[in-house]
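Quick one:
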Amino acid sequence: MDVRSNVPPVIIKRKKVVVEGGHHGGAWKVAYADFVTAMMAFFLLMWLLGATTEQQRKGIADYFSPTLPLNSVSGGGDGAFGGDSVFTEDSLAENGIGASSKYATDSQQARGAAGLLPEGASDPRVRTEDAAFARLEDMLTARSGESHVSDDIRQHILTRVTDEGLVIELFDLEGRPLFVENTRPTRLLEDLTGLVAQVANLVENDIAVTAHARAGPVTLASNPVWDITIDRSNRLRRMLEVEGVNTRRMRRTTGNADRTPAVADPMAVRNNRVEIILLRSDHE
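Output:
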């Protein structure tokens, strides 16, 4: 018998290594998901382009465009705004090209430079009214440099064109109220009312008057600011009529109490304001 027969046989095990290279593992799933997401975004974009007007598309584009408050009406000097920017929430919360207030109401949404004009803006009558409103704004705010309104008076005036019409807002500044003893007009308000009446008499649009007030430090069961704002709006209406505005042009007077603050702080003096709205001719 051969001696080598007692040696155990050598068994060699070979492991088969499988490399996932045929389909690149799961990477194709990630690429496919990215493709589907891109296609969905593309179809949403196409739908948005077809469902909006040119003015709305420009407004959307402007929303996503980073901008700086450097324009013809932004302040920052020693002139009418006393060194404040028109974007300062505590003094001038809104302007004619938009609104920076978090609590802006429907009537405060300015159309502005984005061109979001009301339905039927191609109507020549609408364009004529817009041009007239622009001239009145120039007279009140001195944007064209031709107004003789003093800087002290102009600091209390804010204008904006909305779908409802031209809104002329008169507001309190610290230490310079429009009313004392709740409803008694100050000399400042009398001067402002005379100025607004002169401008309002240049057109024939109907007029609406609205008053707002700042909130009190406590919540009362019977909130007096409702009666205060109603009395203020009626007082301002009578003052306009005394200054020569035709009574027949008065469409409505309202008091909004403290429900629509102009700035974030509901107790800020800036919330004490009145609005004279020159209504559009087709506004109901």
